[in-house]
What does this fold into?
Amino acid sequence: MKTRSAIDQEQLALLQGTLDVLILRTLVFGAQHGQGIARAIQETSGDVLLVDHGALYPALQRLEAQKWISARWGTSTNNRKARFYTLTKAGREQLVAQSDRWHRLASAMARVLGSGESTS
Amino acid sequence: VRKPFARPRTHDDFSAEIQAHIDLETDRLIAAGLTAQDARDAARRAFGNVAIVKERFYEASRWVWLEQFLQDLRYAWRGMRRSPAFVLTAVLTLAVGLGLITIAFTVFNAYVLRPFAVRDPESLHQIVWRAKDAGGQQFHWRDQQELAERHDLFTAVVGEDTRFVSSDGRPLALAVVSRNYFEALGPSMQLGRGLVASDVDDPGDPAVISHEAWTRLYGRSPSVLGQTLDINGRRATIVGVLASGFTGLGDWPRDVFLPRASEPERAVPEIEIMVRLRRDVTRNQAEAALAPFMIRVIPQRGPVTVEVRPQASPNPMTVEQLAIVAPVFAAFVLVLVTACANVSNVMLARAIGRHREIAVRLSIGASRSRVIRQLLTEGLLIALLAGAAGLALAHWGLDAAVRAFFSTLPASVQPMMRVAPLTFDLRVFLFAVTATLATALLFALLPALQASRVSLTDALRGQGAAAHRGSRLRDALVVGQVAVAIVLVIVAITLWHTGATIGGIDLGFRSAGVLSVNVRGGHDELASPLAEALASDPRAGLVAVTSGNPLFNQARRLNASTDDGHASARIRRTFVSPEFFPILELPIERGREFRVDEARTGAAVAIVSTATANSLWPGQDPLGKTIRLSAVDTSDDPPELPVVTVVGTVRDIVSGLIFTGPDTGHIYLPTHAAGPHATAVLVRERAGAPLTPSALQDIFRRVASDPQTFEAVPLEEMRGLQMYPVLAASWVGSLLGGIALALSISGLYGVLSYALSQRTAEIGIRMALGATARAVVGLVMRQSLRLAAIGATVGVVVTFLVLTTLNAAMRLATVSLVDAGAFAAGLLLIVIATMLAAYQPARRATRIDPSQTLRADA
It folds into this structure.
């Protein structure tokens, strides 16, 4: 799709498949709307992870289709109508499974990369 | 619980969410200190392309394909309404192909695939015995009763004895069934009830009639129950009418069912036994368990084995059956394929004409697959219309075919003939739908692939680069059509020619005016009283008895050798009374006829055919010579007369099947009306006073209570009956060949006129440069002939291979299927067809005005 401009180089574009687990993780703290989810991911990652707002909605739609999250229209804190997403039971199980996988992947990556540095 | 097809999220709802997102982001940015305008712009920038996100939302919806499909359908419908002529031709062309193949399948379904309309047909098996050179499925009632006790093998054992009976002068197909028949099979009833065990003792003779008989005899009267039906002079009371699905356990529908009363067992085993095999018993187990039973009940020399044959439908599919059916079905498929090629061809031409429209669609963003889908949808719509029309055509065609079948049958067999119900069931319907969809792919895919492969720049500029490629494809289609047409045409001509050759075979005797009477159901002993009754009746002429009438069965084969054993030959032998020769107008060529005393005593004298004499005593006088007769196989019964003396010779005649030609050797032995070998009767009718059916019935009734015990068929009609399959095959072949030929002519015509329209400018220039009309006609004709020649070559080679194989497989004595005349005639027909197809386009070509085309081109 769109190539991101060079100014975002400090921030990391999300890998395929990572956005889903981040959304699920964010919703653990309670119902949230799309903009809130994007903002939360960016803030909790210390502004390192950049959420493409455009990619967020297809992802939400996908998760909703899989019944891992459910949606309801509500009112935001500053009194705007927004669509709020909540984690379902299936979503919670999915989050556990997914985050476990990511932990293992991340530690494996770290081990490989770490050992590579030590030999050079 | 959520519904499986929950209402999908609307587009508006999604748009509202995106709007909310941007609003919230704007709020946040304003709170962070930006101006309202900057905040809004930044929020939009951060979101990216709203339209793309919305499109992704749209495409992820599972309804989108349906929506696009409906869109395609609407578009296709509009397009079709714009060109009704094209749609009508395409639909009719395909409908003919689909209708024909549906007819073929319906017949196949009725006789092979459709299970008996009874409870659990899969468990039904027939008991069959086999011995060396023999086998059968006829048993006695006592055998059925014995098997019914084998609860360790079968859950039910039913017996059925089928024969013709007279009912108020017309023949009815009767099935006498075991008392458990209806309860064990459980067919559904239209009216009333099935037969039950207690019916056997009912003095009112309860009967169940078939749906077809109900329609034919009672006009589907609802008050048929309780009415009486004459069966050989006894009145039976109708207690039930079967639903239309079940017509008995065979492919030959029965009219009426009676319970088996305690009538005496007949000498000849006649009943067929069907069993329901227990689920925990395999066929092999049952066959092993029945071996002692079979050896006991079937009196045969040599080992007798038993087969428990699966019989869920009248003719369960076997490899041999497929080998017979496959080529016939292939011919129908070929016609359908030709029809598809025709429509494909027209669609290709249309697609090329539409290449600019397609290019525009592609250039404004439609994907190629979307364009292909669109074109396939058009094809599908046409195919669906054609499928519906094809079903209607098949329905009508089957009706017409059955009527044609009955009206072309020889008159004496026509009332005996029954056709399995040729109805459309789910299987036929599914077949028709599958065939329709396959057709749609077949004729629409190629044009769709071709049309969507456009070079955008060329097409939009108005140059059809695809046109050339398309025309090659169309040429290939026409070549294929011509090839198919020539295959079918040559096969049809071969069939006609074969039929005419076989039909023209000289039987060697005069069949006109001779009536053959056979005795049904093993009551051979009735032949003698019948012969006497006929001989004493003034309405009949000369009467003879035989051990088997000519054209009805093949006489027994024996080894004949000369007295000294130097020469021997395989011959057939028939016992005949002296009147046999004058009745058939078969003159004694040398020697004399049988004398009356020889006939009465069964003397050891013989009249031999010319072929017999020639092979035993070439060049010598056979009269007075001695012949030693012996069985062909030592396990067969020995011949009735081991040594005979020749007293006369006659011409060779066709005694068995017409297509095997005249006998290669026949020997006639004397018998008389009361003799043990008299099993059939021949009657020559008095000149100018043919025996009427009522007179015959009258005479028959004097001999047996059931006149249907006798089967009277004029020899002339038997000849027609033997020829019937060849005749029917040539009708079907001609129909298919004719349709294929017509289709390829119109295909050729289409290609030529299209090519011409593409070449108008070129021809115009040629004419401007001085080309004569002749040269222009030659141009068109050459193209036409080139295509036809390639197609014809392919077709001739294929036909030759097919017919050579068939000829080797069938080994017909009298004719060869590889017939140079048929090939020549087929080729000639194709050349004429090609000329016909090219004529109109060629004439149009000569009328091209050079000045006009040059101006248009500039």
Remarks:
- The longest strand of chain A covers residues 69-75.
- The interface with chain B takes residues 1-2, 33-36, 39, 52-54, 57-58, 61-62, 65, 76, 78, 80-83 of chain A (CB under 8 Å).
- Confidence is low (pLDDT under 50) at residues 1-9 of chain A.
